[in-house]
Specification:
Largest sheet: none
Oligomer: single chain
Number of domains: 1
Shape: rod-shaped
Distance between the termini: 86 Å
Helix content: over 70%
Number of strands: 0
Order of helices and strands: HHHHHH
Structural class: mainly alpha
CATH class: Mainly Alpha
Strand content: under 5%
CATH architecture: Up-down Bundle
CATH topology: de novo design (two linked rop proteins)
Number of helices: 6
CATH superfamily: LemA-like domain
Length: about 180
């Protein structure tokens, strides 16, 4: 009888350890995925000063557009959480869309080799960023699902695992920017 009780306790301990390790793996996947988003956000932010400097000479009358980009970049660089980063990212994306829409009125700028290269680099970064966001949200889904389902939720409560935030676009980010001339 004692052997059966000991066997059950050992089995429960093994299951407990396996559940805990699974939660750790999921948590680390979320953190890694967020780091990939952060890398792409940083890469995009690093491209912005070059873009602004290239555009400045051509767009003397578009000071507000350039200021919006600079402010959005600063907000993105100081973001601490996925929610803050998402808000700043949405702000920067809108400002960049406006910049490229306004750039249509400057044929010399559109033909500038430097501007075209920066535009290509930003497009490449945007594609990588979209993939990174998706990967992050997929990993958040897996972790949050594990934390909320039995028997993982028991281990999650015991060790303080918390749900993670998704990287979400704000409502205004889904609309085309308004460009006034």
């Amino acid at each position: 009888m004692i052997e059966i009780v000991i066997g059950i306790l050992v089995l429960l301990a093994i299951v407990f350890v396996l559940l805990y390790n699974n939660l750790i793996v999921l948590k680390n996947n979320v953190e890694n995925a967020w780091a990939q988003v952060d890398v792409q956000l940083k890469r995009r932010s690093d491209l912005i000063p070059n873009l602004v400097n290239t555009v400045k000479g051509y767009m003397k009358h578009e000071k507000e557009t350039l200021e919006n980009i600079t402010n959005a970049r600063a907000a993105l660089m100081s973001a601490k959480t996925p929610k803050e980063a998402a808000q700043a990212d949405n702000m920067l994306s809108g400002a960049l869309k406006t910049l490229f829409a306004v750039a249509e009125n400057y044929p010399n700028l559109k033909a500038s080799e430097n501007f075209l290269r920066l535009q290509e680099d930003l497009l490449d970064t945007e594609n990588k960023l979209a993939y990174s966001r998706q990967l992050y949200n997929d990993n958040v889904l897996l972790l949050n699902r594990a934390i909320q389902t039995v028997p993982n939720n028991i281990v999650a409560v015991l060790f303080g695992f918390k749900k993670k935030e998704y990287f979400k676009a704000e409502e205004g980010a889904r609309q085309a920017p308004v460009v006034k001339f």
